[in-house]
């Protein structure tokens, strides 16, 4: 197991190495901002939480997040390929619950990632489980749940310890939703098997 966890892997925009803790701060739409904490396990599983707290909300929105990498490969040339999937929610600004239902969208997406050196980019595609309003425009409290297509693209620039990530996702429901964000991420070697290296190391 130790030998497996020391093999070369890509500097991924989607998946964390074993024993690495990721802290990220992101700004975008519709969530305004969010904070993210994750930990990588066995080079294939990433689990954590994401949260924000906006004016008008009684308490912070806190949701689990996670990713599973089915295949991670890095060649001698430095080119990396990864295939897997991840789950994430969309954190919406507050609404008046007496006038409008509370929006909620959760994404379960497959991811294909290509990496080389400081750059990592790829595509997401899958399903979005979302709340949509009923037909009656005068009834803002009623909604129904629906699964629709969701997908987009992402990119990361950075080394194994620090990076800048951009995400653009679209939820193609009756009322299409665009999710866009820029995030600054720091990754710390908590209990990884690979040599920890420094902050400037690729």
TrEMBL record:
<protein>
    <submittedName>
        <fullName>Uncharacterized protein</fullName>
    </submittedName>
</protein>
